[in-house]
Design a protein that fits this description.
By secondary structure, the protein is α+β, with helices and mostly antiparallel strands. It has 2 domains: 199 residues, Brix domain (Rossmann fold), CATH 3.40.50; 32 residues. It contains 7 helices and 11 strands. Strands 1, 2, 3, 4, 5, 6, 7, 8, 9, 10 and 11 form an 11-stranded mixed sheet that branches. Strand 3 and strand 4 form a beta hairpin. The longest helix is centred in the C-terminal third of the chain and has 32 residues. 22% of the residues are buried.
Length: 295
């Protein structure tokens, strides 16, 4: 009995030693790129912006949610919220005048951060496009060649890569690549599209949404503040855009009234000759007889 118990203990020790030897190899296979993105918004956001925020949460398995931020709080409070949620990236939605949606992307806590105006929003439920991808699968990021040009575009490309790319071996992710995030620069704006890979043989794609356009405003050196690294010279504020539209509509009315006045002037200046045949079919009335007698 003593010899058998010694052999059993020896076998158990060997098993423990083997597990300890294999431990470093197992650690390599664990989740190492621990990117966590906090996706939330400020109070007062409309339904379209809220649905877009929920779509981004469903597309990013490494994202986290939080309650809405009070409108009285400063934007710098978002840094503290991200630290409490243990997040090093943030996507924050902010609305002004119940119609202008702004998007902040920031690297916590030292920056940089970028502010965009969100335009042409179309959510998944609104588009109802054919196609479906596995929830939690890792996306392929496709960038336009224009991102390799200017310095601010290269910076935005790096931010998009760190925020929208799902880390490898993430606990909530699936080991598949079945959709593509497309970022393209057209008309000094960044266009976002989401496509599903229908067939890997010919790499055919179909759009599944959501889709939106980001109009860059500024890039800051810090997180939600700091010195301005880049300011978009082509950016026009929504208030200025609405003012221009109203001014154009008012100018159409002014031009129409000027055309009417010019037409009246031309008619008054024209000398229309009297045609003798105009009175052939004129019926003589009592008023005409009285007028002739008075003469």
């Amino acid at each position: 009995m003593a010899k058998s118990s010694k052999k059993y203990l020896k076998r158990e020790r060997d098993k423990v030693d083997d597990k300890q030897d294999d431990a470093p190899a197992a650690k390599i296979k664990k989740w190492t790129n621990k990117q966590r993105v906090l996706v939330f918004c400020q109070r007062g956001i409309d339904y379209r912006g809220r649905h877009l925020m929920l779509d981004l949460r469903s597309l990013l398995p490494h994202s986290r949610a939080d309650s809405k931020l009070d409108r009285k709080d400063e934007v710098n409070v978002v840094n503290e919220v991200c630290e409490m949620k243990n997040c090093n990236k943030c996507i924050f939605f902010q609305m002004r005048k119940k119609q202008d949606l702004y998007l902040w992307m920031s690297c916590i806590p030292h920056g940089p951060s970028a502010k965009f105006l969100v335009e042409n929003i179309h959510t998944m439920d609104e588009l109802k496009l054919t196609g479906n991808c596995l929830k939690g699968s890792r996306p392929i990021l496709a960038f336009d060649k224009a991102f390799d040009g200017a310095a601010h575009n290269r910076l935005l490309k790096e931010m998009f890569t760190q925020i929208f790319s799902t880390p490898n071996l993430h606990p909530k992710s699936k080991p598949f690549f079945d959709h593509v995030f497309s970022f393209s620069i057209v008309d000094n704006r960044i266009w976002f599209r989401n496509y599903q890979i229908v067939s890997q043989a010919d790499f055919s794609l179909t759009e599944i949404g959501p889709r939106f356009v980001l109009n860059p405003i500024r890039i800051f050196s810090g997180s939600f503040g700091g010195s301005t690294i880049y300011e978009n010279p082509h950016y026009v504020t929504p208030n200025e855009h609405r003012h221009r539209v109203k001014k154009m509509a008012a100018q159409k009315y002014v031009n129409r009234q000027k055309a009417y006045k010019k037409l009246d002037i031309r008619r008054s200046e024209m000398e229309i000759p009297v045609n003798e045949l105009d009175t052939i079919f004129h019926t003589v009335t009592e008023a005409d007889i009285l007028a002739a007698n008075n003469k």
